[in-house]
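tokens incoming
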């Protein structure tokens, strides 16, 4: 069901687009790429300069290469448009610290630990967290082929709790009866 129409006239101000794409590689690994684009609807002047309406404020990219366990084997970031030249663009190499991190429970917390405000870019760190979901969605069909691996989606949302009817029906191996209190 789409959003209902707004109840007041509106003026567009800003647009953020995030695109996530997953790829199977020839070497048995997977690449998941995220792209973030921010534009403003009006000309803007800010501490680092100015942008004309529609000109990108941010163009950022991040690629995570993962194995079937969702462990990050390579990470590369780019920042092609940003508000502070010579500052924002220097942080992208720091995202190589993601190598060895597993996407799954605790992933968001680990990203926040690795990239506190002074050691990361708010936009790239947000993109990393969003990419976590992209990694799981990219790997899901391959994990489903191995009945010994618990699907990442279980216990990840209200519809797929391991004590719920959907898991009982579609993933009986991982079903756990509700605990009566």
């Amino acid at each position: 069901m789409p959003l209902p129409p707004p109840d007041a006239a509106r003026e567009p101000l800003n647009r953020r687009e995030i695109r996530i794409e997953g790829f199977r590689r020839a070497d048995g690994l997977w690449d998941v790429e995220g792209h973030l684009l921010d534009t403003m609807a009006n000309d803007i002047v800010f501490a680092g300069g100015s942008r004309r309406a529609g000109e990108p404020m941010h163009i950022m990219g991040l690629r995570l290469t993962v194995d079937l366990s969702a462990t990050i084997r390579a990470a590369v970031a780019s920042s092609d448009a940003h508000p502070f030249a010579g500052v924002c663009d220097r942080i992208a190499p720091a995202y190589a610290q993601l190598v060895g991190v597993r996407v799954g429970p605790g992933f968001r917390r680990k990203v926040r630990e690795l990239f506190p405000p002074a050691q990361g870019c708010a936009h790239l760190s947000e993109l990393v967290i969003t990419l976590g979901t992209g990694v799981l969605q990219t790997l899901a069909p391959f994990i489903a082929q191995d009945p010994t691996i618990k699907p990442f989606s279980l216990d990840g949302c209200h519809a797929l709790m391991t004590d719920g009817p959907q898991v009982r029906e579609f993933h009986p191996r991982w079903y756990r009866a509700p605990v009566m209190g």
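note: The radius of gyration is 20 Å.
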